[in-house]
């Protein structure tokens, strides 16, 4: 299953990506200053909302293109993807990092990057990777 080293390697391989602490000091990866994946430990309000379903392993937050993609991921694999009320109405999912394979993680991170990258940079990258 995936690790933080996998997240770091995949994210930093994408054009113009930087790693910097988020506002709470956790690692976050950005493209031209826009965050697309980040470490997101559960907060007390999250734990209250999730109750017994709250996972205890590492949690990755990931931008998704839109709310339809978010709902599809949540429905497709609830053992991996979840959300909290904090993210209601926002196109992002939470991921149980220790339950996602590296290939699926790669796809998720690349799509998160495309969701946040400037259009010209995203188009250039698509053209390069075909």
Termini gap = 27 Å
**Rg measurement, Å:** 14 Å
Number of strands: 6
Strand content range: 15-25%
Q: From N to C, what is the helix and strand string?
A: HEEEHEHEEHH
Secondary-structure-derived class: alpha+beta
> Based on CA inertia axes, which overall geometry fits?
globular
Helix content: 40-55%
Q: What about the largest sheet?
A: 6 strands, antiparallel
Instruction: Tell me the number of helical segments per DSSP (H or I, 4 or more residues long).
Output: 5
Strand order of the largest sheet: 1-2-3-4-6-5
The whole-number mean of residue pLDDT values reads 96
Q: pLDDT below 50 for ≥5 consecutive residues: which ranges? A: none
Question: How is the secondary structure organized here?
Answer:
Layout: H1 4-12, E1 17-21, E2 27-31, E3 34-39, H2 44-50, E4 59-63, H3 67-76, E5 81-82, E6 92-96, H4 102-116, H5 119-129
Antiparallel strand pairs: 1-2, 2-3, 3-4, 4-6, 5-6
Helix pairs in contact: 1-4
Description:
With 130 residues, the chain is α+β, with helices and mostly antiparallel strands. Helices cover 40% and strands 22% of the residues. It has 5 helices and 6 strands.
Structure keywords:
alpha+beta; six-stranded antiparallel beta sheet
Short description:
This protein has 130 residues and is of the alpha+beta class.
